[in-house]
Amino acid sequence: MQALILALPKAELHLHLEGSLEPELMFELAQRNNIKLAYSNVAQLRRAYQFNNLQEFLDIYYQGAAVLQTEQDFYDLTWAYLLRCKEEGVVHVEPCFDPQTHTDRGVAFSTVIGGVSRALADGLQKLAISSALIMSFLRHLPEQSAFLTLEQALPYKELITAVGLDSSELGHPPEKFQRVFEKALEHGFLTVAHAGEEGPAEYIWQALELLQVSRIDHGVRAVEDEKLMQLLISEKMPLTVCPLSNTKLQVFSHMSEHNILAMLDRGVKVMVNSDDPAYFGGYLAANYLALAEHLPMSKVQLKQLAQNSIEASFLSTAQKQPHLAKISQL
User: pTM for this structure?
Assistant: First the structure.
């Protein structure tokens, strides 16, 4: 199964670049930028990666992001992720970045997107990994902050495909950002949103109806609403599910309880992603392997998950075809 997982062309559609910051690189960047971390070594930092909920994770996540200061830092972060992708047979990525995490501490928007976009361009040229970039709004911040971020992004529209919504879900429903998403759609951006992870199925409804999303990030709590499930199936609405993240954050107490394959078998367009792999214990292949080990996952299901990831991407139909053809041949 592992050989097939690595051989299959796969797209990753739910990945936070800041969440791919490995402890080794964090210490390297901290030293480069003369930043003192709260941890004395890599091992101590890794021990701190034990979370009981999403907020505890976010607290350390934002601390780690503070080492990202220069355009080269953002390049190095993104390039390190792309090298992982190359090892694991990932042919297309649609990572998201959180500009507010950086602009709120004085890092220019141009610095962030300059490093990220340069690395993604090199990924296509040097690694044959295509990409589409997603700019996420932090939902725990006010609507006005999201509007400001959208304005900052407009000079770089050609580098950004979609806008998204992430961070603490509870208490911050999608409807809070309806007006921002309407404005983003007017500017030609596609939209995605985190919904139905720690938040209820109602948040998925809001993301679909108010934010007009092309995909739902997470969405595993859709099973709590049968009418919603029927809609997802009939509309072929993609859910970018993150198995290791879901278990690390106690959405499911154990991988054997995860509902991704049950949803797949019902006809929901689910796919596998790694979310914040440096913090949650594994990149894309590790998430597939976890499903194979604990559920288990059949070859047919594995190929369907990979196929879904390509089909749900923002690639053109022509760009998707070679990848889909290879999946069917394996």
Answer: 0.96
